[in-house]
Amino acid sequence: MKNLPKIELHHHIEGAAPPSFIRDLAKRKSVDISKVFDESGGYAFTDFWHFLQVYEAATSVLQTPQDYHDLTLAVLQAGAEHGVIYTESFISPDFCGGGDVDAWRDYLAAIEAAANTATRDFGAQMRCIVTPVRHFGPDKARASALCAAETVGEFVVGLGMGGDEKAGKPADFAYAFDMAREAGLHLTAHAGEWGGPASVRAVIDDLRVERVGHGVRAIEDPALVDDLAERGIVLEVCPGSNVALGVYQTWADHPISKLMERGVKVTVSTDDPPFFHTTMTAEYENLARHQDWGGSEFATVNAVAVDAAFCDAETKDALR
Ligand code: ADE
Ligand code: ZN
């Protein structure tokens, strides 16, 4: 399972930081982040909203382009050890230069240099999805979209939106998504994790995304499920994240197989692996154990992920 080549489309760079990486950086910079960790040294949070606070506290120690360089390299190496050959990572200008385009360019150059090293040394490729944070509001989203539009290219391939799905409504962010679309970026947004089917419909209708981050609660509306299947809208499903955060109580309860059976295009990702004590290997093993997945399901999600990846056609061909 570990060596099976894997494609990961939903992955937050800061959320992939090992606790030891954050702890070491905090020590070097004398930042107090003791509330971020539990007694065993893992990330400590009680629910999703607390998770977002802990995530942002941990991220506060990532202060320079060099920090993001080192993080990216460590994260891609860790992924490669689990067979991940291609990752699309969410990276937010809010954390990388505060939305300033010139500062963002500096962070991006450092991150891309690390990605190139990872490709050379571990055979792991990466692309960047620029990520507004929904609870930071539409103005900051617009600044992020401008950063994305100014740097679109082989490495920066998309605009995504994470954060608190209950903050504001997707239409508030339409300007940012329109700007990104016009600049040639691909689009995705988190929805259907904490919000129900209406939340998924809103990002499809108002932001015109090609993929939905999570999207799993679409299962509560059969008409929406049919619509997703018909229109070929791809879900970036993160089952381990959903179980760890309590969207579903157990792996057996997770609707990923039902969505697949109903013809929806699903992919598998980790979201924020050390926060949820997961890896791509663990995701695959749990799907095999609790949802009876075998070679054909893994081959299907991989093929769907390559088709739905935001990179160029040549890169996709090499991944097939
Ligand atoms: N940012 C990092 N992980 C997230 C998640 N699971 N949902 C929304 N925003 C996030
Ligand atoms: Zn996410």
From TrEMBL:
This protein's UniProt keywords: Hydrolase, Metal-binding, Zinc
Domain of life: Bacteria
Gene3D superfamilies with a match to the protein in the record: Metal-dependent hydrolases (3.20.20.140)
GO molecular function terms attached to this record: deaminase activity; hydrolase activity, acting on carbon-nitrogen (but not peptide) bonds, in cyclic amidines; metal ion binding
Annotated Pfam families: A_deaminase (PF00962)
Coiled coil location: none
Names of the cofactor(s): Zn(2+)
Record SUPFAM superfamilies: Metallo-dependent hydrolases (SSF51556)
Sequence ranges assigned to domain Adenosine deaminase in this UniProt record: 5-320
InterPro entries: A_deaminase_dom, Ado/ade_deaminase, Metal_Hydrolase
Family affiliation: Belongs to the metallo-dependent hydrolases superfamily. Adenosine and AMP deaminases family.
PANTHER family: ADENINE DEAMINASE (PTHR43114:SF6)
Protein name: Adenosine deaminase
Lineage: Bacteria, Pseudomonadati, Pseudomonadota, Alphaproteobacteria, Rhodobacterales
